[in-house]
Design goal:
This protein is mostly helical. It contains six helices and no strands. The chain starts with 7 loop residues before the first helix and ends with a helix.
Length: about 140
């Protein structure tokens, strides 16, 4: 592992992550799940990356990319970024990075919409709750 470089890219990703966490804090009275998910999924993503990197070094079974992307999509993209940079893992494969950044953009877009027009998203909650079988 190497130390995380504090460059413009890391600063940018940090600001995006802080924006998402700020959104999760404002959503907390309605649902604590996003605020819990970001640190938990980030830790899980970091550990999955570490396992995959070690497996790659040892020539063993690898963690599927879909599993890594699922951890990112569940809120672990900040932890995935730290893992990518500190382990030099999954940083060169363009197709992987494209999906990673699409996930980041979707998170940022969601929270941006939340800040601009929370009612737009709240109007969609009944559909989400119905899909999850909560209502």
């Amino acid at each position: 592992m190497r130390p995380l470089k504090f460059d413009a890219k890391t600063l940018f990703v940090s600001l995006l992550a802080l924006g998402c966490i700020a959104g999760a804090i404002t959503l907390f009275p309605i649902s604590p799940i996003p605020l819990i998910a970001y640190p938990a999924a980030s830790l899980a993503a970091f550990l999955l990356y570490a396992r995959d990197k070690l497996s790659a070094i040892r020539g063993q079974w690898r963690v599927p990319e879909s599993t890594l992307h699922l951890a990112e999509a569940l809120g672990g993209w900040p932890g995935a970024y730290i893992a990518q940079q500190t382990m030099r893992h999954k940083t060169v494969k363009t197709s992987y990075q494209a999906v990673y950044w699409i996930i980041v953009c979707l998170h940022v877009a969601f929270w941006s919409l939340w800040f601009i027009s929370p009612q737009t998203l709240l109007d969609q909650w009944p559909l989400v709750l119905d899909l999850l079988g909560i209502r």
